[in-house]
Amino acid sequence: MRTKTLEHQWLHNLCMRGGGDDKDVQNLKRLAAGYAGECEFDDWLSNYGRPHWKIFKDIWIDAGGTTQVDTLLVTGEGVYVFDVKNYSGALEFVDGKWFSSGKRLNKDIFIQLKRSMEKVSLMHYRMGRPGGLYSSIVFINEHHDVKIVDGVDIEVTMRNDIKRKIHKIADEENWNGSLDIEEVARAIETFIIPCPYSPRELEAAEFDLLRRGICCAECSGFDIAVNRYHVRCGCGHSEAKEKAVLRTICEYGVLRHDRELKLEEVYRFLGGVTSKKHLSKVLRRNFKLISTGRHAKYENPRSEYDFVFKDHDFYYNRPVLNRV
Ligand SMILES: [Zn+2]
Fold it and tell me: CA 304 to CA 324: how far, in whole Å?
């Protein structure tokens, strides 16, 4: 599974709980579309690529400067970088400029990738140039209409070419593949750094305006009835209470990424759905203790539940229907 960026998770939780302004909502939409496009491309790669290929998703690289890479693929033949764009609507590249429905875009998709590839090339060079290095922009949206009038020196893959492109990479591996993929991947890992950007920190006043309590995992509503072992939303969705509590603690951690988890603060955010005593147990069981005592602190994973507790199973996981 591809992890959403902290900025994406933060905006999602902020807007879901009634915070943020129009700009935040627009940003969230843009990030959500980008994420959906990247996940779709992941599916293409896993359906038509080869199981032994190594794929890095949404990584930051430090080589003569930092850069972000959506998808980096290592095959037996070389290293491939993909910049996935999920634009819908008409897009035109004329005279070295991008236009969307006749309006000039203030960013240049090609220059972005070129600048990024300068760093990736330096990394590749420092690794001793294992195999070839290739890059491509992928326009993944099925409702887009991209017209590139000028000749460009960057490879562009349109949606209807993705499958063919992946097959071509597999063919190239058949002909020239001689790399030890694991070894190349390990060398790349030495250049990977954590994302250097964090969302802004919420002021206490802004945070206090956000909705507290458990938010439905299905419909994002707050019409939640809390029973002993389950929580049930007005939309009909039911969830193990232990999971809902843990999920909400993670949401708190994303919103307050600038601090660790403290019992009192998390308790307030949960809006009384569980006792302090029980919450203390949940924290102890699931998060790393950083400092003990009256103001015990637990490590904030700074990530939503789905990315932190991927394989967690709960005793009361089965949804219980028709029980009040
Ligand atoms: Zn719901």
Answer: 29
Tokens 């790399």 correspond to 179
Q: From the CA of 217, how far away is ligand 1's center (Å)?
A: 7
The CATH number linked to 129 is 3.40.1350.10
pLDDT tens-place string over residues 2-45: 999 999 999 999 999 999 999 999 999 999 999 999 999 999 99
Q: What is the distance in A from the centroid of ligand 1 to the CA of 276?
A: 25
Residues in the 5 Å CB sphere of ion ligand 1: 216, 218-219, 221, 233, 235, 237
183 and 55 share a domain? yes
Question: Do 161 and 215 fall within a single domain?
Answer: no
Q: Which two tokens stand for residue 232?
A: 């049930």
Number of separate domains in the chain? 2
Confidence of residue 108 (pLDDT cuts 50, 70, 90): confident
CA of 231 to the centre of ligand 1 (A): 10
Q: What spacing in Å lies between the alpha carbon of 236 and ligand 1's midpoint?
A: 6
Sorted by sequence, the CB contacts under 8 Å of residue 295 that are 6+ apart come out as 262
Question: Could you tell me the residue range of the domain that residue 261 belongs to?
Answer: 204-308
Taking a C-beta distance cutoff of 8 angstroms, is the pair 300, 256 a contact?
yes
Q: Tens of pLDDT along 265-282? A: 999 999 989 999 999 999
The first and second tokens of residue 19, run together, are 């915070």
67 and 211 co-located in one domain: no
Distance, CA 223 to ligand 1 centroid (Å)?
7
Buried b (16+ CB within 10 A) or exposed e, 173-182: beeebebebe
Whole-number Å distance, alpha carbon 258 to ligand 1 midpoint, is: 29
The alpha carbon of 69 and the centre of ligand 1 are apart by a number of angstroms equal to 35
Q: Which residue in 16, 28, 60 sits closest to 255, CA to CA? A: 16
